[in-house]
Every structure is written in C-alpha cells, then in structure tokens.
Amino acid sequence: MDLDLAQLRALDATVTAGTLDGAARALHVTPSAISQRLRALEAATGRVLLVRSKPVQVTESGQPVLRLARQVALLAADASRELAPGDGDRPVTLPIALNADSMATWVLPALAPLAGEIAFDLHLQDQEHTAALLREGRVMAAVTAAADPVPGCTVTRLGGMRYRPMATPEFARRWFPDGVTAPALARAPAVVFDRTDDLQHGYLRSRGVDPAVPPLHHVPASVDYVTAVTLGFGWGMVPRQQEPPGGLAELDRDGAVDVVLHWQQWRLRSTSLDRVADAVRTAARRHLDHP
Amino acid sequence: MDLDLAQLRALDATVTAGTLDGAARALHVTPSAISQRLRALEAATGRVLLVRSKPVQVTESGQPVLRLARQVALLAADASRELAPGDGDRPVTLPIALNADSMATWVLPALAPLAGEIAFDLHLQDQEHTAALLREGRVMAAVTAAADPVPGCTVTRLGGMRYRPMATPEFARRWFPDGVTAPALARAPAVVFDRTDDLQHGYLRSRGVDPAVPPLHHVPASVDYVTAVTLGFGWGMVPRQQEPPGGLAELDRDGAVDVVLHWQQWRLRSTSLDRVADAVRTAARRHLDHP
C-alpha cells in the first residue's frame, strides 16, 4: 500500500474536527481538497474509511488507517520539535482516555506542566469502552482498570484506588442505627455514578442485598458524586483520594474494594507520549495505593 | 387502547433497569412474567416497543408508551404517599436532565432536602439531546438552555449563567502580554469542555479567530474543566458560579456570554414533580443571574 502523508493527515484532521469543513480550516486547505484526499485514500486502501455523517464516523476498515495516521502525525511532530526546538510549533494533540475519578483527582496536576507543548484531548470512559477507543485508534493512551493489553499496546500497572462505603455521620445515624445490616441496606438510598458503575451494586451483593431493591440516585460526574454523598443524598463508595476535608463516616471496615489502574499506550517510540507516560507514572506512585 | 397497569410498570422497570432480569428483580416477579407483560403490551398497542438489546432500547413507537407508563407511575406514587404519608414507601424515581455546569454548582444543594423521598436519576446532557430525552419520555424534567417547549412540556425561565473568558494571572501574562489580540488568541491554548461546547469557539469567532487554529485541550467534566483552567492548561469561559476562591483573571471585559437556563417539565399535576420544580426555581432565583 502506497502511503500519502497528506491523505493520512486529512483523515486524522477530519476525525478530530468531526467534519470535512473543520478539517479544511485546521489544515488551511479547501474542503474539496480534503474530500479529494479522503477519496484517494479510500481508493488506495480499497475500503470505505469514513461514514460522512455529522460528526463523521470511522468505519471498521478505517480504524487501522486512522491509527496509522495518528502514529505518523505524532512521530512527525516529535521529529520537527527535535529539529527545531522551541520555534513555536503548534502543540501535538494527544487523545487520552481515563476514568472519571482519576481525572477528578490525580491526573490533571500531573499533566499540567506539559500543557504548553501538548494539547490534551481527554475522553472520559469506563473500562469497557476504553479498550475499544485504543483499538479504534481514537485514543493513544489510557488510564484504565483494564489489565489485559489491547493489541498493539503496552500496559503498566499504576496502583490502586481504594473505595470504601461512606456517608455523612447524620446519614449513618438515621439509616444505619444498628450498622450496615441487610434490611438497612435494602432501605437506605445509595448514590451511583451511572449505569456502568458496579461498585455500590457489588457491595450490596456482598452483603446479601439485591441491588434492584434500594432507592438509587444517579449522579454521573465524579466531583458531583462526592458532593451528593456529602450533601446526604445517600451512601456511596468513595476513594481515599476524594474524601472531602469535612469528613465522611466509613460505614463498614470490611467493605473496601480496590480498583487497580493501568496505563495502556500504543507501542510506539514517541518523545511526547513518553513524557506523558513518565508524568502519569510518577504521579501514580505518589497518589495511588501500593499495597 | 386498553391499559394494563402491570404491563406499563413492566415497561418502565425494564427501561430503568436496562434488562428484563433487572426489571424482574425490581418488581419481585420472574423474568418470564416481565417478558409476557411486555409482549402483551406490544400486542395491545400493535407496535414493537423495545429492542431486546443490552441495555434494551426504546423504539420510536415505544416512546409515547414509556412516557405514559412513567406519568402513571409518578401519579400512583404521589397518590399512595397522600393516602398513607410516611409509611416508608419506596421513593419515587424522577429522571431529570441537566447541563453539567448546573449540576456542578447550584442544583445538587437545591435537591438535597428532597433526596430522602425522591430518588434522583440525573442525566448530563447538552441542550440538543435534552429535548430528545424529554420527548422520548426518558426524563420528566430538565434544566436546559432550550427555551422552546418540547411538545407536552411546560417551560419556565430560570435565569442566566454569565460566562467570561478567564485564565490564571500567570497564563494571562505569558500568552496575552498585549491583551486578547487576534494573533495571541490564535496561539494561546484554550480549554474546551467537549465537542458540543461552543462557548470558546463563539468567543474566538467574535474576535476574528478561526476556532480550528488555536491548540485546544478537551476536559469533559465541569469541575475538572475549571480545575484545568486554574492549573494553567489554557484560558476558558468560566461562569461566576464556578470561579475558584484563589481567583482567575478576566481576560476581556467585553467577552461575557449569557446562557439563559429554563426548566422544562411534563405537563402533569404531580406533587413530587411540583416540589422539585419549586426547589429548583427557588435556588435559581438565588444563584443565577437576573439582569
């Protein structure tokens, strides 16, 4: 297969911008130039790579080509930075997936020192979808509970986040006067992040309570989730890294659940990606649990 | 059309739980009883109401039936609460859509006093999808920038959130030594919430800068977004309600954008829904802008 860099760049920019017009503006060419390059790339690969919806959708055949396009773009940006350091190059964009609680606690301060040279395109995803994003080439790296390497990726263990069932002291007194008994857990409201969050469900099952029985609040944002527990909406599984200064009561000393996080990234020697990986691993050593 | 309450309840519970098994556990019946009721409801309406995927998907024909099921469930829960107040009824679940910045600032404290009687199923959605959720019957109310009433809904104006272009004082000195000129805005990194967030793009266009040009960080969670601006990732449009105590610098006194929020809810006399609407309107009077 003959590779044309301008064609690959058109694919990358179109997926990033979501539209051919956006890609044209980003690359300072006309929309018809983008369209021609995409058609030529589809002719060269013999496959339909994009569905021209709004935003465009990458087809299954388009995934390896998009991944290739982004790998090439990253390596080219690294090389040009090395050839002419500090000449005010446009920062390279790194799409990274991460779980909501990591983004809300320890990841942003770790990435901040690199934010002048790298544009961080952060995607919030649960574990299941993160593997798909890596496979599809939509993200280059991920902080994820998925320990199995996605094909083409390396994986490093970062450390754990320990979730414990917590509530305000007033909530604990009102709903659990005799501790976390099964009848009390079946009646007390719980706060759940979203439909894919199994932490509260898992704890309830471990105590013999069907998770379909208690009333559930759904609060699908990480900081807001802890705010809801702190405001007394219900009990919830809260990691040490997110305990509010005011203090929540731990409901059950045997109720902790450890979620082990991993760094997965494309198998690729890239200075930019290596620097981000170093920053994330250093912060993880400090902020995550290493039992 | 002959209505069967048990059948409507099966539809509601299946969509809420996402699976027939989950609905069966929630209603304390067998999965085959759920399956029979759904088939009977589909026979009575002459339509396929659900796609049996995981989670189940409501078809277009299923939307008005789901909406009806939830309206009936809400009215029945209200009535039973009125007949036997305080007898420890299972709280009624209210699915509500809201924009991320409202959830992160003024809405949760307003809902907290009701969280013992009402289970809040909060959905984060941008304006466009919120109207769809109301129409489909997936949410009963919404805090949304959409001013046009969705068919079957009432709409009340809540007040405004005023977004201003802000950054840390260090960021402003480094990237905008001569103020927010077009060349400086074309080079300075900006923080954007997600692909549907047009606030930064709108400001850039108003200053003659193509939004495809500057480097963009994407940080898709409301509190984390402000954290990223505070950590110096880039400049961003920040509402007064979210300004951090440490203080950010306002970049452009003429750059404010007002987003006017509305409360949309199903046209339905329900005690529970009315109490939530009252709490939201009272908090909005206090926390939103009323120029």
UniProtKB/TrEMBL annotation, chains A, B:
<dbReference type="Pfam" id="PF03466">
    <property type="entry name" value="LysR_substrate"/>
</dbReference>
<dbReference type="InterPro" id="IPR005119">
    <property type="entry name" value="LysR_subst-bd"/>
</dbReference>
<dbReference type="InterPro" id="IPR050176">
    <property type="entry name" value="LTTR"/>
</dbReference>
<dbReference type="InterPro" id="IPR036388">
    <property type="entry name" value="WH-like_DNA-bd_sf"/>
</dbReference>
<keyword id="KW-0804">Transcription</keyword>
<dbReference type="GO" id="GO:0003677">
    <property type="term" value="F:DNA binding"/>
</dbReference>
<keyword id="KW-0238">DNA-binding</keyword>
<dbReference type="GO" id="GO:0003700">
    <property type="term" value="F:DNA-binding transcription factor activity"/>
</dbReference>
<keyword id="KW-0805">Transcription regulation</keyword>
<dbReference type="InterPro" id="IPR017685">
    <property type="entry name" value="ArgP"/>
</dbReference>
<feature type="domain" description="HTH lysR-type">
    <location>
        <begin position="3"/>
        <end position="59"/>
    </location>
</feature>
<dbReference type="InterPro" id="IPR000847">
    <property type="entry name" value="LysR_HTH_N"/>
</dbReference>
<comment type="similarity">
    <text>Belongs to the LysR transcriptional regulatory family.</text>
</comment>
<dbReference type="Pfam" id="PF00126">
    <property type="entry name" value="HTH_1"/>
</dbReference>
<dbReference type="InterPro" id="IPR036390">
    <property type="entry name" value="WH_DNA-bd_sf"/>
</dbReference>
<protein>
    <submittedName>
        <fullName>LysR family transcriptional regulator ArgP</fullName>
    </submittedName>
</protein>
<keyword id="KW-0010">Activator</keyword>
